[in-house]
Specification:
The structure holds two protein chains of two kinds. By secondary structure, chain A is of the alpha/beta class. Helix content of chain A is 26%, strand content 31%. In chain A, strand 8 and strand 9 form a beta hairpin. Chain A starts with a strand and ends in a 6-residue tail after the last helix. In chain B, the strands form three sheets. Chain B has a seven-stranded parallel beta sheet, sandwiched between helices. Chain B is of the alpha/beta class. In chain B, helix 3 crosses helix 4 and helix 5 runs parallel beside helix 8. Chain B is globular, with a radius of gyration of 20 Å. Chain B contains eight helices and 16 strands. Classes of the chains: A alpha/beta, B alpha/beta. At the A-B interface, helix 3, helix 4, strand 7, strand 8 and strand 9 of A face helix 3, helix 4, strand 5, strand 7 and strand 8 of B.
Chain lengths: 254, 308
Amino acid sequence: MVPSMKIIVAVKRVVDFNVKVRVKADQSGIELANVKMSMNPFCEIAVEEAVRLKEKGLAKEIIVVSIGPQQAQETLRTALAMGADRAILVQTDVAAEPLAVAKALKALVQKETPDLVILGKQSIDGDNNQTGQMLSALLGWGQATFASKIEKDGGKLNVTREIDGGLETLSLRLPCIVTTDLRLNEPRYASLPNIMKAKQKPLATMTPADLGVDVTPRITTLKVTEPASRKSGIKVKDVAELVAKLKTEAKVIS
Amino acid sequence: MTVLLIAEHDNTHLKPATLSAFTAAHKLGDVDILVAGQGCAAVAAAAAKIPGVKKVLLADDAAYQHFLAENLAALVTKLGANYTHILAPSTTTGKNMLPRVAALLDMQMISDVSAVISADTFVRPIYAGNAFATVQSKDKIKVMTIRTTAFDPSPAIGGTAAVENIASAGDSGLCTFVSQQLTVSVRPELTAARVIISGGRGMGSGENFKLIDAVADKLGAAVGASRAAVDAGFVPNDYQVGQTGKVVAPELYIAVGISGAIQHLAGMKDSKVIVAINKDPEAPIFQIADYGLVQDLFQALPELAKAL
């Protein structure tokens, strides 16, 4: 009889992936006022995977956690509506860096003693792709990043990962860390009854200081700028003209 | 300033990503290169030939055969404490391993550096390349992955650095390699190709990618795909060019049946010359293409293969 897992899933509130972001005129950052915010897409995949493991009878409890502002409660409620059991918000208005987030998560892991922590491979705002690996290192646990398939095999987890040349499968001892890639699953939409039910699920709030974690940034952002724009070129009328242009004008083929 | 650069390789060949990352590393100071793997002496010998390398550290051990993050990070953490900067190319291996090193050294890592301004100030893309942040690190050791398309590869030969064997840091036992399914291709790798031709949802099926293959054969090109084409199952995931796939910057990029979602553009808009073939004249890809051809791809691709 394989004991059922306790899973922590970390989620982040970010600018919705459909929003075209704008750099502030004073180059101090990205315009966030009146911009739609949502759960980071990779985090949604992480929540979905945990819920599927529970539905298969492989998990007994899913705790969803976020380090962020008060509004991240909405993100946590979304995860609860998808099927997580309870939530913890580590509330801070500081844009915590991956190392600080990993330290806060480590403290929570030590309190909650999960068998598995699932995170998104990166958030689509900072694009850092660090937190899961850092958490894994701080805990001295194994990691399987960029997961496209997870299978429980007794006390171990077999994870297929997306790597540059194709796919790779690793076997990890529990407890361990998994970060999700795009093709792991397609997250569900929460149903209205589940959204209503999620409002009754427990959501605890604490601060980084409660966990003994300093979230003061180590990195200073000096400025944020638009990428160099690429101007559109010309339309060619047919393949013959295209080939001619590539040979004589662009000189990229011979 | 002394920089430790982690070489990207497959135990046999030094990958071109290493040469691009070396260019970034060399802007910062003297560079030592770590080659960790199994049976990888040839890789160390190749790394020693890069002009400007100070020395090559070779850790040849079964623990590094599959580049497991837990084992590599333990080694790099031990070595790295003596350097001012620790760099790795922004490949899946580098991204997997380096954050562990940063955490173990208590440094806040900087991901995907696209420009080196000074010893502590760097530029990196955020929001899928829709903005670039100039950031300054106060940490004692700067731990960074390097966006290889942003730096020209250094020359591969001309140097004569010494190769020094170093001890393994052992196997963590946390994680075991089971298997890998690598895509076998006679074509160049996407991240190293001079010419890339990519197909999108408009290709309609995996079978139709043979029309792309025919053009790729003529051009000696690598074949890529948009996320839509990968999600639809037309081609394997490692074909994907884009924010969440590979970032490429070839001399010539040909986008076929690709609408031009921001996701895709983030992975290829630094290409020198961009060609778009799409039957929809309103497709956003035309806004960034140097040469646009509004035509049905099932007509254009065979014509193109014939004309080349």
